[in-house]
Specification:
The chain has about 60 residues and is mostly beta strands. A five-stranded mixed beta sheet has the order 2-1-5-4-3, with no helix packed on it. The chain has no helices and five strands. A hairpin with a 6-residue loop joins β4 and β5. It has one domain. It is globular and about 45 Å long.
Length: about 60
């Protein structure tokens, strides 16, 4: 499965994953962490589009 990342610190990159992917926190090198969630799966090509989900710190 190919996962294409849109937006955030890893926008424009692609991941090759051996099985289903439900999203998660990702980073690469010195890039900030980003929470990516799948938003579209093309059943013909198997490509998944994942967008960054903006999160804000919780107040205590």
């Amino acid at each position: 499965m190919i996962v294409r990342l849109a937006g955030g610190p890893l926008g424009g990159r692609e991941l090759s994953i051996p099985g289903p992917w439900a999203g998660g926190w990702l980073t690469a090198g010195d890039a900030d962490w980003g929470l990516y969630v799948p938003v579209h799966h093309d059943p013909v090509t198997g490509v998944v589009l994942a967008e960054v989900r903006v999160t804000a710190p919780r107040r205590q």
